[in-house]
Protein 1
Amino acid sequence: LRCQPNIWSGQLYFDEYDTYVRLCLLLGISPNEFQKYEYVESDRFVPERGRIGDMRDLCLFDRSPIGLVRTLIGLRRKGMSFENTHLGKVLHARMLLPDDFEEED
């Protein structure tokens, strides 16, 4: 539930891999290569006809929200780059791995 407020508030990093997966499912984006979605667009958006599992229930988008979210975050960042953040990678069709969330001692 906290994924939605976090994205609209401009949070750029996720605290754990499960948060990343949940956000992807909410946005209709394939979170990893292990799920075998029938249809996946170039920005990793899965159209309604290709959704499986939790994504069918969680995603309410008929079209990819990636462009809109990328524009919103870009405006909030006032032109500052966010491509190398967790959210930036998601919005630029790059998958995250569990290793991306491991904390260094």
Protein 2
Amino acid sequence: MGLNDPFLHSISMQRCSGFLYAFQNAHAFIKAEVYKRVLVIGADFNSRYLDFADRSTAILFGDGVGAIVMEAASSGTIDCVIGGETDVLGSITAPNLTDHPNPLLPRNLIAHEHFKMKGSDVFKFAVKTMEIEINTILKKHNLSMDDIDYVVSHQANQRILDSAKTCAQGTNT
């Protein structure tokens, strides 16, 4: 891959949006010509914090790893938006999930600390936020959804992605 003298950078505190934070950092490094090529790896180990009896949360999350190699190109990343909102405070709760010295602790040792969310509140918020952000980027760059091949989102739920795409295309706004 031609990765000589690699620079390693961990963005583990960003949880589910960590991959996009790393993506944006890599894009900035490449654009500034600090690096020619960047390997971005994202990994989540959510199952250790899920209450599998809680169907409003457990069915939406899993464990996974993905990676991409990024480099400068004549076409590619158009824009990247990262932000946070307080509109969903209370709809998502994650008890001190990063305070365990050993990330591979068995589930039964941390079973009392579960990630919880109010699924319908988060669904509505995610669709609305993605619609706003996609439309802002399209307007900023004078594009339509027909000009876009991929939207990379930290949101992995296919129903949310499909709804946001429909709204951004203007058929459901």
